[in-house]
Amino acid sequence: MASRIERFASADGACGRFHPRLAFFRSEAPEPRLSMVYDPALVLVAQGAKQVILGDEVHRYDESNYLLSAFDLPAHCQVVEASPGRPYLCVKLCLDMDRLRELLATAPAALPGPSGRGLAVSPLDPGLLDAVLRLVRLLDEPADLAVLGPLVEREILYRLLTGPQGQRLRERAVAGSRSQQVARAIDWLRRHYHQPLRIGELAAEVAMSTSSLHHHFRAVTAMSPLQYQKQLRLQEARRLLMSEAGDVASVAHRVGYESPSQFSREYSRQFGAPPSRDVEQLRRSFGRAVATG
Fold first, then answer.
1. The pLDDT of residue 291 is above 50
2. In the predicted model, what is the mean pLDDT of the chain?
3. What are the pLDDT digits (tens) for 39-53?
4. What percent of the chain has pLDDT over 70?
5. How many CA atoms lie within 13 A of 89 on its CB side?
6. Which residues are CB-contacts of 155 (< 8 A; sequence separation ≥ 6)?
7. How many CB atoms are located within 10 Å of the residue 259 CB?
8. Which class for 40: exposed (0-12), middle (13-18), buried (19 or more C-beta within 10 A)?
9. 257 vs 246, 252, 275, CA distance in Å?
10. For the whole model, what pTM was predicted?
11. Is-contact 75 116, C-beta < 8 A?
């Protein structure tokens, strides 16, 4: 797996270059802590280790386990084990939720396991590893990939549904479930993160009571809807500042803050430094990584 990932890995790991849902990542050194939104996906590490911080929880994964995200979740991530001689290498498969729902009718019952948190790490079993490796191998045979790829993806989803995180995926996919209502709330927040948040209106949008929305949203995301919105705003602000898309005040306004001073305070609490200094430090860190890579 590691040798194949090294062939396919790109700097940004974007999906679609070889397969619409497969992405490959490589890093030759531990990285500064980054913020991103984890979409529903399976992640396998072939070398090195990474950690994801969701709320106050730290999830570490390496060659012996896999990360599964069943929702769109803003989190911090950091490669913690990597070197030029043994780079961090991983493969990510974005989950096809339509195929997952099709499997629900025929898949046997899931193993007993937690159903709450939307992101977790589980031990990697040989069957799941073998299925992912076969899908990666098919990239060398485009004609075979077109026919066999969907079958192998189906097997991967089947193994996830019948594995230790199967209950989490089932609840995410079942129409009308609390998890799917939370998924709808998450989708609304992602599309309207820059607008004022009125919890009552959001609860009505997803057909939940306010108290039920708070309870189930926190169970899945490890944060409240307001904290989730704040994470989205600050992550987008950091991205805009890194891309030199405007000064601090204009970026604050674009992501939904009326007060630049409040934005700077919350940004500092989130990333450990005021916006301008944080972006400068990030650029220096990535500059050193490129220079030594």
1. no
2. 89
3. 999 999 999 999 999
4. 92
5. 15
6. 131
7. 12
8. buried
9. 14, 5, 14
10. 0.87
11. no
Retrieve residue 143's tokens.
Answer: 């004609």
- Picking from 268, 272, 244, 267, the residue whose alpha carbon sits closest to that of residue 256 is 267
Rg value, the chain, Cα: 20
Residue 267 Ramachandran class (φ > 0 left, ψ -120 to 50 alpha, else beta)? alpha
In whole angstroms, what is the distance from residue 102 CA to residue 276 CA? 48
- Please give the angle made by the CA atoms of 225, 226 and 230, to the nearest 5 degrees: 115
- DSSP 8-state code for residue 160: H
d(CA 51, CA 212): 30
Q: Which of 7, 22, 14, 64 is nearest to 156 (CA)?
A: 22
Q: Indicate the SS3 state at residue 269.
A: helix
Closest by CA to 49, choosing from 36, 37, 59, 63, is: 63
Nearest CA to 19 out of 150, 130, 116, 114 is that of 150
Cα dist from 211 to 190, 200, 222, whole Å: 21, 10, 15
Give the single-character DSSP code of 57: E
Per residue in 234-275, pLDDT tens?
A: 999 999 998 876 799 999 999 999 999 999 999 999 998 999
Listed in order, strand segments (DSSP E) in the chain are 22-27, 34-38, 41-47, 49-54, 57-61, 65-69, 73-81, 88-94, 119-123
Backbone φ, ψ for residue 162 (5° rounding): -100, 5
Residue 170 CA neighbour count, 13 Å, CB half: 21
